[in-house]
Write the structure tokens for this entry.
Amino acid sequence: MKRILPLLLVSCLAAAPAIAQTADCGALLGTYLTKKVDTSGVDKGVTGRTLLSLAENGSAIMTDSAQGGIKGYQAFGMMQGVWRCEAGGESAMRFHATLVDFSYPDGDNPDAKIARVEISGAVDATSGTLKGRTAINIFPLFDDPFSGKAPELVVNYDFEGQRILVTPPNRS
């Protein structure tokens, strides 16, 4: 019994949420397919798609159609981090996520970078539509992206998307 109790305590702590949620966040949980629209003046119009997943334990992941690298930007990996939610009114749930990402060196940009990705948005609980804004703050690889130091580059974009739902199999 003495050996089981510490293991049980460790198991309970490991299952604790990454961020304490301040509201009923059920309407936000899931994975969303979004369209990105540049608002930083760097690019114009729809610039790509993302998949954003918000999990019940407070973790968040995002993948991006531009991860392989596009003109003017280095290739980069999947973004991972945490999120929290707040009541946003009668039919919307607001959220904020902070993710971290790494870029990969290439011929034009020989130095890898680290990025702090800040995402704020809301989900309409009735329609499932997700809307918001993303700010990508890019730093030298060994800088602390949470130090308050100004980033080398900031890229902003708005996004809109829908929750991905399970599609019933075609029974024809």
Summary: The helical segments are 4-14. The CA atoms of residues 29 and 54 lie 5 Å apart. Strands lie at 30-38, 46-54, 59-64, 79-87, 92-102, 113-124, 129-140, 153-163.
